[in-house]
Amino acid sequence: MSDGGTVGTAVTRVDAEDKATGRALYVDDLRFAGMLHAALVFPGCASGRLVGIDASAALDVPGVRAVLTADDVPGENQVGVVDSDQPLLPKDTIRYTGDAAAIVVADSPALAREGARAVRPQIEELPGVFDAVRAMEPDAPKVHEGGNVFLHYKVRKGDVDAGFAEADIIVERTFRTHHQEHAYLEPLGAIAVPGDDGSITIYGTMQSPYYVQKAVATVLGVPLSRVRVIQTVTGGGFGGKEDVPSEIAACAAVAARKIGRPVKLVYSREEDFYRSSKRHPMVVTYKLGATRDGRFTAAEIRIVADAGAYSTLTPVVVFRATAHATGPYEIPNVRTDAYGVYTNRQTTGAFRGFGQPQTIFANESVVDEVADTLGIDPIEIRLLNALAVGKRTATNQLLEESVGLPETLALARERSGWDERRREFVSDTGAIRRGIGVGSIYYGVSLGAKGLALDGSGAVVNVYRDGSVRIAIGGTEMGQGLLTVLTQIAADALGVSIEAIHIDHVDTSVVPDSGPSVASRTTLMSGNAIIDAAEKLKARMGAVAADVLGVDPADVRFGAGRVGGRGRDLAFDELAAECWARNVNTAAEGWYAAPLSTFDENGQGDAYAVYSYATQIAEVEVDTRTGRVRLVRITAAHDVGRILNPVTLEGQIQGGVLQGAGMALYEKMVTDGGEILTPDFSTYILPTSLDVPEIGTVFVEAPYSKGPFGAKGIGETPAMPGAAAIANAVAHATGIRFHELPLTAEAVLLALSEGRHR
Predict the structure, then answer these.
(1) Among 505, 516, 522, residue whose Cα is nearest residue 203
(2) Would the pLDDT of 1 be above 50?
(3) Which of 339, 392, 478, 608 could make a disulfide contact with 448, Cβ separation 3.0–4.6 Å?
(4) How confident is the model at residue 426 (pLDDT cuts 50, 70, 90)?
C-alpha cells in the first residue's frame, strides 16, 4: 500500500518553468541535418474533377526540390480515421477547398510556399452541396459515390407516442449551430525523419500519436513497427489535433521517403484554418413533452450533422451526440435519430464536448421553454427530472454510482444568487436588460461503446537505482495539465516525492497503442495504467524491503519517500539501490482497459462506464440599443469524482467557460460555396481578455470507484453547458428565445427590432 500526500493539493505545474522560460521545444523549433520544408497545393475550388497538375513553373523556382502528387504515394493513398474515405492526395476528385492536390518540397518554408503558388491544378469544376439538410435530398450533388448520408444512429426507449399522449404540454423547436474553430495557439506541424534502415520517425504537435503511426504506415506501405512517432510539446489541441496531424505527418513522410531527407511541414495560421477540422454544424429538432407538474414524459430528437467532405471522426462524434441528446434527465420514452452527412465544406471532427454542445443548446433551450410555459423555475424543473443514482439514461443505463448532478444544480443555484437575481432582473426596463440562465449536462467519460477497441492505455514506470522515477505514457499533454496530475498520481501510488518523478511525452516505440487523448479519458486511463505498474513494482520492491527489515511483506507500506512497517523502515532510494544490487527488475508496464460498454441497434445499453456532470449559470447584460450581449458572470459547478489538483482544475474551468462563450456570442465562421472567408484571427472573432467574465467555480466530489483515486474526466465538460446557459440568460433578459448560434450583436438587435424569435 501507499500513503498519499500530493493528490488533491495545488502542486505547481511540472512543465511551467520550461514553458515560461522558452526552454520547451515545439515542433517548429526542431532542426535536423539536411532538413527540407514542404508546403501544400490547394485546389481553389470545393468540388471538381482533377484532370492534371502542371508543376513546371514550380520546378523552375530556385530551391524547389520536388512536386509530389498522388502517384508518388508508395503505399495506400488513404488517411481516413474511422472510414476509408479520405485520400491523402486526391487522384481525380476534389471534394473541398482544403484538399491537398500536391506537395511542394524546397529548401525553406518561403520557397516551398512560393513553389506551391506556382503549381497549376487543372480542374473541371462540378456542382457542390454546402448545406447538410439539402445534401440529404435525393437530387443533391453527391460528394461520394455511395451517397451523402453515410451514418444513422438511433435511440428507441419506451413508447414515445404514448409518452406524448400523457403530456400536458409539448414544445418542438429546431436549432442550428455552425462551425467553430479550435484556435489553439500553435498551428499544426510535423517533421518526418527517414532512417537508414527504411524506418521513419515522426515528430509533431498532436494528441493522437497512434493515429499518426497508423496513417504513416498506411501511406508508406510499411509495417507499424517501422514507424516511430514522438509527440513534441504541443501548444493546445481541444480536439483539433486528433485527426488532422495524421494528414500532415503522412505528407511529410511521403516527401521524406521520396527524397531521402528530413522534411518539415508546418502550417501558417491561414493554412491551419483552411485544412484543420472544425466543430460540426448541426441542425437539431427537439420535441419534449411534460406533465403540468413538470415531469418529462417523452422526447423526440432529430440531429443532422455536417461532416464536410470526409467522415473523419463524425461516426464517434455523432454517436456521443445521439447517446446524450436528451440531456441529463430521466425521460421514460425517447426516439432519437442522428445522421452524418457529407457536404463540400470544411471537414469536421473532434472539438471539446465532442458533438454535445450543439445538442445541449437545443435540449436546454427547450427545457427552459417548457419551464416558462408551466410557470416552474428552470432549476426546479431540472432538479425534478435530474439523473441521480438509481435512475436510467436515454440508453436505459442504470446509474449506480458517482452521479453528482443534483448537487451541481443546488450549489450553482446557491453560489450564483439565482433566486434573488431571477426575481430582480425581470423588473429591468432601461436600455440595459439583465438576465440569468442555466445549463446542465452529463458527459460519458472516455470513448464508450463505439470506441471500445481504442479504449485501453499503457504506461511504463522505471525506478532507477538512485530512487528517481521515469515514466512513459500513452496519453498526451497539450496544455491541459496532464503531466502534472499524472505526476501526482505516480508520486502517491509509489509513495515518493513529486521531485522524484519525470514523465516523458509520448513515444510510440516505448508504450503500446493507448488510443487518442480525447473524450476526457486521459487522466482516467493513463492514471490507472500508472497505478497498475506501480502496484507491480511495489510487490517486487516490497518483498525486498520486507527481507531487509525482517517484517512481513503484508505490513510493508510506501509513503513520504520511505518504505517499511512495524516501526522499521528505509528510504525509497536505499530500497531502489538494494533492488538493483539483487538484480530485481524495477521497471514495470501498466495497462488499463475501460469497462465494457454496450449500445445495441435500438440505442439501448450501458453506453459509457461513468459520466461527469456539470451545471453552469450565466448572468448577462443585453444592450437593447446595439444588441451587444455582455457576459457578466459564470458560476460553474462540476462533479469531478475526486479533485486531483485544484489549480489545474480551475484552469480547465476558466478556459472552457471562454470557449463556451465564444460559441454562444462571438465565433462565426463565414463561408461561401465552401470557401472560408474568415481564415485568421483578425476576421474570425474570438473572446479576448476584455470579454472574460467573473468566473466562480465550485466542485462536487462524487468519487468513481474505478477512477484513479476516485477521479473522473474533466477536460470536456467546462466548455459544454455555457452556450446554452448564455442563450437562456439572453432569453430571460429580452423575452426572445434564439434558435441559432452565435448570438451576435447583429442577430440580437434584429430580433429585438422585429420582436420575434430567431
Answers:
(1) 505
(2) no
(3) 608
(4) confident
Indicate the average pLDDT of the chain.
96
Q: Do domains 16-23+456-593 and 282-449+599-754 have the same CATH topology?
A: yes
Alpha-carbon gap, residue 356 to 149, rounded angstroms: 20
**Euclidean distance between CA atoms 708 and 487, whole angstroms:** 12
The pLDDT value given to residue 404:
98
Residues 196/262, Cβ–Cβ less than 8 Å: no
Please check whether the domain covering 31-120+188-266 is classified as CATH 1.10.760.10: no
Return the residue matching grid coordinates 404514448.
162
The strand pairing partners of 52, in sequence order, are 122
Domain ranges of the chain: 16-23+456-593, 31-120+188-266, 282-449+599-754
Contact 623, 596 (CB under 8 A): no
> What grid cell was written down for 736?
426572445
Domain 282-449+599-754 carries which CATH code?
A: 3.30.365.10
State mean pLDDT over 9-38.
96
Tell me which amino acid residue 581 is.
A
Residue holding cell 512560393? Answer: 114
36 vs 262: CA distance, rounded Å: 6
What's the pLDDT tens digit per position in 57-74?
Answer: 999 999 999 999 999 999
Separation CA 475–CA 84 (nearest Å): 25
| DSSP 3-state of 108 | coil
Pairing, β 282-290 against β 169-177: antiparallel
687, 665 Cβ separation under 8 angstroms: yes
| Sequence-distant (≥ 6) Cβ neighbours of residue 76 within 8 angstroms | 218, 219, 221
Give 595's contacts (C-beta < 8 A, 6+ positions apart): 609, 706
d(CA 304, CA 607): 21
What single DSSP character describes residue 325?
A: T
Q: Number of helices (H) and strands (E), helices first, in the chain?
A: 19, 28
Neighbour order of strands in the sheet with 282-290 = 149-157, 334-342, 296-308, 282-290, 169-177
SS3 449: helix
Q: What pTM, to 2 d.p., does this model score?
A: 0.96
Is 643 within 8 Å of 714 (Cβ atoms)?
no
Cis peptide before 742 (omega within 30 of 0): yes
CATH architecture of 16-23+456-593: 2-Layer Sandwich (3.30)
How far apart, in whole angstroms, are the C-alpha atoms of residue 615 and residue 206?
A: 30
| Least-confidence region, from 42-46, 127-131, 426-430, 649-653 | 426-430
Look at residues 557, 525, 552 and name the one whose alpha carbon lies nearest to residue 538.
557
The answer to whether the beta carbons of residues 545 and 488 sit under 8 Å apart is no
Beta strands 227-231; 200-204: pairing state: parallel
Cell of 175: 436549432
What are the CA-CA distances from residue 619 to residues 278, 355, 628, 631 (Å)?
28, 25, 14, 6
How do residues 104-132 score in pLDDT, each as one tens digit?
Answer: 999 999 999 999 999 999 999 999 999 99
pLDDT tens for 455-495 read: 999 999 999 999 999 999 999 999 999 999 999 999 999 99
Q: Which grid cell sits at 642?
A: 475526486
Question: Closest Cα to residue 135, out of 303, 297, 275, 341?
Answer: 341
Rounded alpha-carbon distances, angstroms, from residue 292 to 167, 168, 376, 485, 613: 8, 6, 9, 47, 27
- The C-alpha cell of 652 is what? 480547465
Beta pairing class for 557-559 and 501-503: unpaired
Query: Does the pLDDT of residue 4 top 70, yes or no?
Result: no
pLDDT at 755: 78
The whole-angstrom separation of Cα 278 and Cα 239 is 9
C-alpha cell at 345: 465544406
Instruction: Identify whether the C-beta of residue 343 lies closer than 8 Å to the C-beta of residue 132.
Output: yes
- What b/e sequence results for 364-375 when a residue is b if at least 16 CB atoms lie within 10 Å of its CB, and e otherwise? bbbbbbbbbeee
The beta-strand segments (E) located in 107-188 are 120-125, 149-157, 169-177
